[in-house]
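Need residues for this backbone.
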């Protein structure tokens, strides 16, 4: 289908480079007729290539620290002004742990860094939603999406305090989704994506090994960043108007697997007789 997002306006957080899921969502949203602004933290803008993406999508880049409410207010008001009306969708693709980046194990966390993990990776969603609501910036039946990971439910060594942040993120989806749904018919969901070869994901220790494991465990294999972008587009569209407060697994079936034949073959047991 073409034109799924024709006439819709939005903000896409977190596009860093062409490996980013947010980058691919922006390209797909543009392809499907949406107009939107792009945003990231000033430090991330210096590291990335987001201006190239903006040129491809015919839009602008607005720097904002998503942990700072004043930055979010300016971002949202400037976006509404630039786009010529209230928003229909927001992609919150934000996550970072100083502890993980600096190699701190889960049993030896720096708690000041952990606070930053929560603020960047979870509370920024609440701040974004609360700011949008107070400014009445989203149209009825608007859609807000955030990206999460199954480590919010199950233990994955190496994911560190990001797992706790993702669990909080998913709770915010449910809680704010209730209030925003009752007040404005705005839907709020999270997508629990397969391990994906993004710049952020590949920085986790042992990621390559786990990527291969998940691929063998999942009946359909790992979902790509581009496939995730397609899924996001459907959730921004009017085809999913009654989907809200959900954590939606987009992982090739990994979340429902115990073990697969492919994994069993890696550990052959003793033969009888």
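Answer:
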């Amino acid at each position: 289908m073409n034109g799924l997002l024709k006439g819709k306006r939005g903000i896409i957080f977190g596009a860093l480079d062409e490996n980013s899921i947010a980058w691919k969502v922006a390209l797909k949203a543009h392809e499907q007729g949406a107009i939107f602004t792009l945003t990231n933290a000033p430090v991330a803008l210096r590291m990335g290539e987001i201006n190239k993406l903006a040129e491809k999508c015919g839009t602008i880049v607005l720097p904002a620290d998503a942990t700072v409410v004043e930055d979010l207010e300016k971002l949202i008001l400037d976006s509404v002004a630039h786009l010529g009306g209230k928003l229909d969708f927001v992609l919150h693709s934000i996550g970072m742990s100083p502890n993980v980046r600096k190699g701190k194990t889960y049993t030896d966390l720096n708690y000041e860094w952990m606070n930053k993990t929560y603020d960047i990776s979870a509370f920024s969603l609440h701040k974004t939603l609360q700011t949008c609501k107070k400014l009445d910036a989203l149209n009825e039946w608007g859609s807000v999406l955030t990206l999460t990971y199954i480590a919010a439910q199950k233990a994955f060594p190496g994911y560190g305090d990001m797992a706790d942040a993702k669990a909080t993120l998913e709770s915010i989806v449910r809680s704010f989704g209730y209030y925003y749904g009752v007040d404005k018919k705005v839907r709020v969901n999270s997508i629990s994506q397969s391990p994906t070869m993004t710049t952020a994901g590949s920085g986790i220790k042992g990621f390559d090994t786990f990527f291969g494991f998940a691929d063998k465990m999942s009946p359909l294999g790992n979902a790509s960043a581009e496939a995730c972008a397609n899924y996001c587009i459907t959730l921004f569209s009017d085809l999913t108007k009654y989907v809200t407060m959900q954590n939606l697994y987009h992982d090739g079936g990994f979340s429902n697997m115990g073990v697969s034949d492919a994994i069993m073959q890696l550990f052959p047991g003793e033969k009888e007789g």
